[in-house]
Amino acid sequence: MSNERELTMAKAIAEAISQEMERDERAFVMGEDVGVYGGIFGATQGLLSKFGPERIMDTPISETAFIGAATGAAAEGMRPIVELMFVDFFGVCMDQIYNHLAKNTYMSGGNLHLPVVLTTAIGGGYSDAAQHSQCLYSIFAHTPGLKIVVPSTAYDAKGLMIEAIRDDNPVMYFFHKGLMGLGWMRYPERSVNVVPEQSYTIPFGKADVKRPGTDITIVCLAMMVHYALDAAEKLSKEGIEAEVIDLRTLVPLDREAVITSIKKTHKLLVVDEDYLGFGLSGEIAAIAADEAFEYLDAPVKRLAVPNVPIPYSRPMEQFVIPSAEAIAEAARSLAR
Amino acid sequence: MAPSTEQLLEMDRQAWTIRLFEETLAQVYMEGKSPVFDIGSGTIPGEMHLSAGQEPVAVGTCAHLGQEDTVVGTHRAHHFAIAKGVDLKEMAAEIFGKETGLGKGKGGHMHLFDLKHKFSCSGIVGASFPVACGAALAAKKKGKDWVAVAFAGEGAANEGSFHESLNLAALWKLPVIFIIEDNSWAISVHKSKSTAIPYNSQRAAAYGIPGVRVEKNDFLSVYDAAGEAIARARRGEGPTLIEVKTYRYFGHFMGDAELYRPKDEVKNLKAADPIDQFEQTIIAKGLVSRAQLDKERETAVKAVDEAIEFARKSPYPKSEEALEHVFA
Predict the structure, then answer these.
(1) pLDDT for A309-320, tens place per residue?
(2) Can you tell me the ipTM of this complex?
(3) Number of other residues whose CB lies within 10 A of the CB of residue A133
(4) Any CB–CB contact under 8 A between A33 and chain B?
(5) Architecture of domain A6-194
(6) What CATH topology corresponds to A208-335?
(7) Closest by CA position to A202, among listed A245, A163, A151
(8) Is A189 at the interface with chain B, CB within 8 A?
(9) Is B123 exposed, middle or buried (0-12, 13-18, 19+ CB in 10 A)?
């Protein structure tokens, strides 16, 4: 029966890190509250008691120093896993991420390898306001040199984390707070799923069709996968079969999966919890225009956070973050 | 200079306003969060960082400030806001996410902006230092004797912004006071595990400015230390760094299981509660009477009740208002 056990995403991530740390002595963890607390969102739960404070290192609130140190340690052959508590806090350490971690491999003519995994929490919907609710993966996907992982289920989270730790490049691993299966935050039941105990990897750049359909393609990731699936169930009762594609990684991006689905459904809706402007939804729409234009029966539709900071108050926040209802409505108008 | 009787009474009222406001919020916060605790549900959703226990830092400092002086606070900022004179009703309404709040419900409890009382805060650790430097720079350019105070936790003193701001303020002799609240815990990480030296006040030496450590979580000790620093800044003699030992009674945020600190830590801290000690001291010195202090407490109870009532009764903003105010 042990093969059939279900895990939360947080436990799946912690297990992946644990298994890789057992396998590879060069791997270690740094971050704020990753030790006794087990990570504010549980991504390093149980690791301190297993590996001790030499390998599970609580840090001062000095992100530039410890994220920069990950780059430096990786250059010396270590394999650091480092946590930025909320992605919103990127501002205090962006230079080390954007100008060093992302670029040193290229500037060294490919001589330097930086096997760093930078984990961080994303997402809103629980009234944490403008400085604690953003997704921002598009900002990091924008600069060349960072691989971008954004899982939506426990199974995907484990396989993608092991792949991330084994990758010889910097990988940013974004986990959505609302998918971690925390005791203090509501999460979709679907995010908790069967996770094999044995180690396994999921290759980057392979989107997952979370639900096959024939009438419309919905491209999304993280929490929006669950909202899209909720919407798809509703739409199905109305005779509209939506295909839900979970990108899982932005860099590398599975363009083929998007194009293949458009060829089948001829209609594309992109749903994103990040900002609408200059981001993921525009990128996917551009791919559709560039490579699948003749297969589209309608203009591409995009649903994302309008270009405003995330407001605190519930009615306003729920208005700006795409909901299952809003996805269903957008899909309906497109399918008609 | 020792505080006047009027000042002592005002400090007592502010202390109680803070304490009662935070304790009331702790109760209201749990409304709609049982039997299942979901941080996004209830009357007050989202993160909630309460400041009960840390009243002396805010009250002892702000006793020296006028409306024209600037205060920049942290993610845990209710006590600073109250001590600076921010309207309790508008603040409560903001925390409830209501239209009548300081930021029309857009900011929430970590993002309070009150232009009238020159108060602001931020959810980003270490963000108060540079902003306070800017307010101090503006005062200097305008030729005023106004000062700016940046409050921050001891964890924030390990951010680059702390060190950059101290250097800038010292170099430009800015009328700014940096006040570190040392409550020992940066969420779960104890100061001894995060900071290379025992006292952040020692770090002032690196920038050639005075560094003061206040060892007691005590209103009058903070009052003295802050008074000297603020007077110095008003005279144009530049910045001071003060670190105050203080305590937080609640967890880092509501919902924090607090497994990182000993179970009896808070119980022991409450045995030497700063408000009790303050009141006992000033009564023993014959400066005020018990009856006077009780009256201040009653005023605080009423103010908090009215603020919560106002927040409850206020309407929510319309959802479409989310699209307004990105730009001026």
Answers:
(1) 999 999 999 999
(2) 0.95
(3) 28
(4) yes
(5) 3-Layer(aba) Sandwich (3.40)
(6) Rossmann fold (3.40.50)
(7) A163
(8) no
(9) buried
